[in-house]
Amino acid sequence: MQWKVFLASATGAYHLANDQPCQDAGHFAVNGNVLVGVVCDGAGSAAESRAGSRFFAARITELASAAFGTGDVGARSDTEWHDAIAGIIEQARSELAETAAAQERSLRDFASTLVGCVTSRDGGCFFHIGDGFAIHQSPSGESVLSRPENGEYADETYFVTDESWKEHLRVTPLAGIERGGLIGLMSDGTSPFAVDGPKTGFFRPFIDPVVKFLREATEQDGTQALQNVLADEKTHRITADDKTLLLALVH
Question: Cα(22)–Cα(14) distance, rounded to whole angstroms?
Fold first, then answer.
């Protein structure tokens, strides 16, 4: 089993117009058969949201990679997955809280959403707080999803920095990933053109040609191509938000 992973972010039209950097971040690690990937979206209203999204994407990836090792992750119950992921998030939050206190800031200043995966040929899970989207598409085209969770209004969501984060942590178990399978993690800026209208899986007219190219590309060339797709003017006409997409293929 081998993973090919492509990760790209692009600054949205709103931030470009205001000369502001991208608030999204993504990180991944492949250790043997195990893939850990995380995508985070910093809250625009939080002073250090860019730093928060970068920290959580990198640190949760590191902690999860260390926790689950390099072999197959093994069979776990829903509760076991939830408890393991919650422990990792708790540690990352505690570390950032210490940094925030040293800077005389609060954890809320680093507000960020979180969507990620731990997976291998033996199984795994998605984990999710807030908006964004996660999809596992099997070789036959069937999908397992982790959909966004918004608040009372469409533009509200939940953050890993919230005091109530445990109430909004959603963990979705995954069966083993087969050859030809596809994992996708994305921020909410990507989902308007990467997810189908009914939110049942990838928007196939978008994802199929992208994946066809990526299967034959090197990770370097594929990542650059994915970056170009996210930064294309066509995406700016669909959404003004920042865009991050992680695609992982099994071959």
Answer: 10
Cα–Cα separations (whole angstroms), residue 139 to 56, 130, 178, 201, 250: 31, 28, 7, 13, 10
| pTM for this predicted structure | 0.96
Question: Which pLDDT does position 122 carry in this prediction?
Answer: 85
**All structural domains of the chain with their residue ranges:** 3-250
201 φ/ψ angles, rounded to the nearest 5 degrees: 165, -165
The class of domain 3-250 in CATH terms is: alpha beta
pLDDT per position as a tens digit, 124-163: 999 999 999 999 999 998 999 999 998 766 678 999 999 9
Going by C-beta distance under 8 Å and a sequence separation of 6 or more, which residues neighbour residue 204?
196
